Structures are given as structure tokens and as C-alpha cells.
Amino acid sequence: PSTEIVKPPERKLIEPGWYMDLENEDYHGSNGSSSSQVKTLLEKTGAHFDYDRKHKDHKETDAMALGTAFHSLTLEPHKFNQDVAVRPKEIKARRGKDWEAFKAASVGKAIITEGQHKQAQEMAKNVREHPIAGLLVNDIIVESSIYWWYNSNEVDDDIKYREMCKVRPDGICRNYPVILDLKSSLDGSFSGFMKSILNYGYHVSAAMYKDGVNQRQDLHEVTKHFAYTTFVFVVVENFAPYLVSVYELSAKDLQLGDMLYRLAMRRIAIARDNEWPAYPEGIRETELPAWATRGHVV
């Protein structure tokens, strides 16, 4: 397979490296496979992956806008007005002349309501005041971008390939060898967040983030850490009283995430060699799982 950097249509071409000041919009609009794209190959087809990397825009929902505000107030409060625009309460609907003028003046910013602003402030305050989370966010490198070539190097890998990858960790701690991921959630309980890890593949993303961070010797020279070995989630519920919980991804779960991450990378290479196949074209017979008959008389 070609080892040239693949630049999807109208995507910004960025070379491998560690970028401290790359804007979020430039990151999402650049070449390279992100963790959300890579995870596509664990459940969907090569055609899904190919379409997403070429056409999928980074469109912000209300939940994402709240997340942006929460992240900004927690990690970079001095940049809040640069990143976020708070919609005045007199603009009650997303239509009309006043709304269009406000939207035009807020290009490039996440737009939130005053209610969401108060939510984000409480969430950020609780993180800062938490005895562990507060220490972790106290001295971090915020949202830097890392690009690198993923190379097949497993002894049982029968094909050779490489893929341009990119990650943008919420925080890389200076005081500890910890990569930090800040999450807003509807359920920050232990059982609730374990479900979120599985449902959204957070352990797969963590493995990819860890791999990317540990590629950069220049980063390690700045932080004075030999390697980053720990991945921590700081989870804040997005409703009152905005409780905070902190979870370290276990070695076993990180190992599982790493296995799935590398499986996904292999599948990208195979899908590329087969011109991004979709679902099989033939008719397939259904086969419901065994548990589907439980509680029924057949």
C-alpha cells in the first residue's frame, strides 16, 4: 500500500509532529485518522470509514456546545470568550434578524444559552474544587495535537501497512505521567460510566491517545516523563449538583482497548486494499442469537 500522506478532499495537510497551538477547527479539518474514525472499523464497514474521513464535517450539537464551554472554563478559562458565545436571553429563538446577526458575530465559537453557561460554570467549579481532579487539571498541556504514522509491527501481522493518525488529548499532565480525559455525563456512577466506556469505546480511544503521546520524544523532553503510562477520566454529571467522579483505566481494560485499537488499524489497511468494501451484496439468511428464545415456548 502507498505510504504517502493521504489528504482527503479540502482537508488541511499536516505532517507528523506535536502541535501546541493548532486550532480545534484546523485539527478536525486535517488529514489523519482520529480515534472516533478508527473505532468505526470495529463495528462498521470500510465504506463507512472512507465516507467519514472524506465527507463528515465537525458539526456541533447543543450537547457538544455545552461540552466546549465546560472544557474551556475548566481547562482554559482565559480563552472562554474566544471559544464560546453566550446567547443573550432577549434572543429567544434561533431565527430572525437578531439571531442571524448574533450568529454571524459568533462564527468559530460554540453558542450556548445563559442557562448552559451557568451549568458549565458549576461543572468547572466542582472539578477545580475536587481533591483529586483539581490536582490533575492544575498544571496540564491543554488540547495539543499529535500526528504520527502508525506502523504494523506485530509479530503475527502478515501484512505491512502504515496509517497517518491523530489525537488531541484534553490534557497531558506535567506533574504526573497521566493523560487526562474530561467527560460530561448523565451518569457518573461507577456502573453508569463502565457502560459508557463500553458503549462509546473510551478504552479504545485511550489506547490510541497513549500510543500517540508516547510517540513524541519532544513532548517527553518538555514534561520530563519517560513515558505516559496512566489514563484518567474526570467525569462530571451535567445536572445539579454536578457531581464529580474520577476513574483510572485499569491495565486490563487498557490492554483490551489496545488490542481493539490495533485490530481496527489492521482492518483499515485491509479495507483500503479492497477498495473500501460495504456490506455483502448477496442475500443472507437471518440467525437470531440463542437468548432470543428465552421465556418463550417454541
Q: Could you please describe the fold and organization of this structure?
A:
With 298 residues, the chain is α+β, with helices and mostly antiparallel strands. It contains 13 helices and ten strands. The strands form three sheets. It has a five-stranded mixed β-sheet. A three-stranded antiparallel β-sheet has the order 1-5-6.
Reconstruct the topology from this structure.
Elements lengths: L16 E3 L4 H5 L6 H4 L1 H4 L2 H10 L6 H14 L4 H4 E3 L10 H9 L4 E3 L1 H16 L3 H4 L3 E3 L2 E7 L10 E6 L3 E3 L4 E8 L4 H11 L1 H12 L3 H7 L6 E8 L6 E5 L2 H23 L25
Helix pairs in contact: 5-8, 11-13
What are the salient characteristics of this protein?
globular, 16% strand, 298 residues, five-stranded mixed β-sheet, single chain, 10 strands, disordered N terminus, alpha+beta
Helix-and-strand structural type: alpha+beta
Largest sheet: 5 strands, mixed
Strand content: 15-25%
Number of helices: 13
Number of strand segments: 10
What is the share of helical residues?
40-55%
The 3D shape can be described as globular
Largest sheet: spatial strand order: 4-7-8-9-10
Order of helices and strands: EHHHHHHEHEHHEEEEEHHHEEH
Poorly predicted sequence stretches spanning 5 or more consecutive residues: 1-7
Mean pLDDT: 89
Rg on CA atoms, Å = 21 Å
Distance from N terminus to C terminus (CA atoms, Å) equals 51 Å
